[in-house]
Amino acid sequence: MSPSTTARPVLPPQVERVLAAVGSGPVLRLGVVAPGGYGKTTVLREISRAFAEAGASASVVDDAHLLPDAELLALRALVERGNENVVVAYRPWPRSRALAALAESLGRARPSLMLEPFTREQVRAVLPASARGLVDFVHQQTGGVPRFVRRLAGLGTAEVTPEVVASFRADLDWLDADVRKYLLAAEAGAALRLDLLGGLLGVDADAVGDVIEAGRATGLVAADGTLLPVARLAVATLSRTDRRIAVRQRLAELQLESGGPVLDLVRPLVGVGGEDNRTGIAGPGMARAFRAAADEALAAEPALAARLLAAIGTAGADVAVRRAVASAMAGDLDAALRLADQVISGGDTEHRGAAAEVAAIALAHRGQLARSTELHRWSPSSTSSAFAVIGQVGTGRLPTAPLPVAPPTMLDGGASLMAQGVVESVTSSATTSLSTLVRAAGLLEPAGRAVLLPDTPAALAALVALHSGEPGIAESVLDRAMATSSGGALMVVRHRLLRAWIAMQRGNLAQAREVLVALRKAGRPLEPRDWLFAVALEIGVARRNSDLATLKRTWEQACEAVLRHPVDLFTFLPLGEFATAAARLRDQHRLAPHLAAARNLLRDLGDPGLWAVPLHWSALHAAIIAEETSVAEEHAASLAACRDRSRYAGIVSAAAESWLDVVAGKVDADQVEESARGLQAVGQWWDAARLAGQAAIRTSDRQAMVRLLDCARLLQGRTAATTRKQPEPAAEAVDAGKLSDREREVAELVVNGLTYKQVGDRLFISAKTVEHHVARIRQRLGCTSRAELLDQLRQIVG
């Protein structure tokens, strides 16, 4: 007995009753039946000791299933005479005629003792005190089989060690070939598939039943026919690799013949021969299985699908295209482009168009929309024709031919609607375009992550919605796309960034910042299109937070991002943020060529108001920051020219005029409030609050100032009642260290390291007013230095 177990073995109640009756009752004739490892030997040892203590003799026989027929018949004769104590233990299989006859005789004398696995409480009793916390783990791994429980009794953590696994070698080595095959099939998940087992073993159903019974008699198989977890690990680890592969290959072939799934059978074989499977373990007969498994894995696990296809070894162009698709869907665009290029430049004309489509989609994510469009036009598929139209519009070229007629499939129909919606965004109204793109998103929803797209209809709909002042629609369509995994792993970041963009426009800067932090923690490099939006989002959050340090630090990334991603129609949002940041940093010349390219692109498309308005709005603010009044007026005039094209254009145009008046010192409180509330209605909450706040600090009318500050705070999501400046009691009536609400706001921002100007920008007051508040706080707290002031403020505001 292991020294880690208790001195007396844990025995079930029925065994304790037998032991209590030894020597005091009639002759004991008993059969003890259980698979291997269930403690038959332990029970016999305790029964032998009980007979010895009682001074009685007994014939105690273990492993009777291994005895020759002659010995079994002799034991039966002894039992039949009925004048001696006879206890015989055996497994339920193999069961020869002689053993069956012995069991029948023992059963007539007394019902056989059927040993059961340990309960959870019995496992706890077996484990040493140091391992009591692993009761659930040990019970789950072993199924309560006593022998295996004792093997795991010395574990210190919830992990099966190599030493424990190695202890199963003796259990496996003596098994015959068919039982080993059965256990390998059980390890592959086919323990109860009689059809597959028959084909694997080459026997009929009756013989398969015999092998299953033999497998269960080992004690390695649970009552439901599956391998115990620890046994599954042992079978997988200790079996010869070639045997394990051969069993899985044969099972996969049989499963394919029956039309069943093969992924779970094939998955463990991936990588056995190295990343490219240079050892050829798949073989010609397994190519179909690997291909079928890759098709099963593509939607949920595209990276696995790519590895399965790579495992085929030497393969044709069709497999290379499939592998390129899987690589792209997994986000490995380098591999996708490499594989697609090999097919395009090769001699296989049949698959060249499909490879071109994959390359085109990858290049769209890389920000090379013009080259992507050319490849789409080269590909003969109807989806590529639709995607080519989207690329044409995105790069400033209106299609001259009618949109291609889409075949009646989900993907072709969705792609056709995407193209139609993008064309409508420059030739029709925002409402029409949005309706078409939202329908496209709904059509592709059932496909979810199973399709490879250059962009999702949800992302395009969100862009159109953001450019037309409909953030609610953008939010809704993005949420549905994220819930259905539209576009798969390749589109996850894009959807999250666009969702964060809405939060930023609404002034929810913390939420937008959380997305950026999560992307950095993920540690995965972003593709140029996603990186462009991520950098612009960081620039936008920093600007709205008056965080000049972050703005300066991120600006170099912004300049690199626009170099890596040529300007297209779908990048106007980040370009507008960069324009405003460039003006703040007095570095406009570096962005000038890109803004010129954007203006040329708009001109080539006929200056569509939907795409032009947000860019002019950003350029207006850039000009105001740079104190270029004439340039600001030009952009305001361009906005005015679009005023009648849409509700959004009218609101933004009115706000632009109001902002120029405020900058010039002409503050009409009614006009400012109306413009600010208009901006809020189209989702630009931060701009709305900023307009009202800037007007408040520029007016000399005290009543108008209070009214506009209240408006700014309400638009910012803060209540006017708690933030409006109230008459303060005399200093002597105020407790030392007690700050007013306004002083606490100022203190929190100062402690966070903001300058007086940044604090003023945040609270819609002047830097001079902030300085006055800080001086008053310092006087009230009796601080003699700034360091002392900051120290006390940290204690007060945390």
Features of the shown structure:
mainly alpha, elongated, 798 residues, 4-stranded parallel beta sheet, disordered N terminus
Instruction: Tell me the number of strands.
Output: 4
The overall average pLDDT, rounded, is: 88
What fraction, in percent, of the residue positions are helical? 55-70%
- How many helices? 43
Sheet with the most strands: spatial strand order: 2-3-1-4
Give the distance, in angstroms, between the N- and C-terminal Cα atoms: 61 Å
Q: Describe the global form.
A: elongated
Rg over C-alpha atoms, rounded to the nearest angstrom: 39 Å
Give the biggest beta sheet.
4 strands, parallel
Instruction: Note the beta-strand portion.
Output: under 5%
Structural class: mainly alpha
Low-pLDDT residue spans: 1-6, 272-280, 719-737
Structure description:
- This protein has 798 residues and is an all-alpha fold.
- Helix content is 65%, strand content 2%.
- It has a four-stranded parallel beta sheet with strand order 2-3-1-4, with helices on both faces.
- Helix 3 links the parallel strand 2 (59-61) and strand 3 (86-90).
- Helix 10 packs across helix 12 (205-217) and helix 40 packs across helix 43.
- Residues 1-6, 272-280 and 719-737 have low confidence and may be disordered.
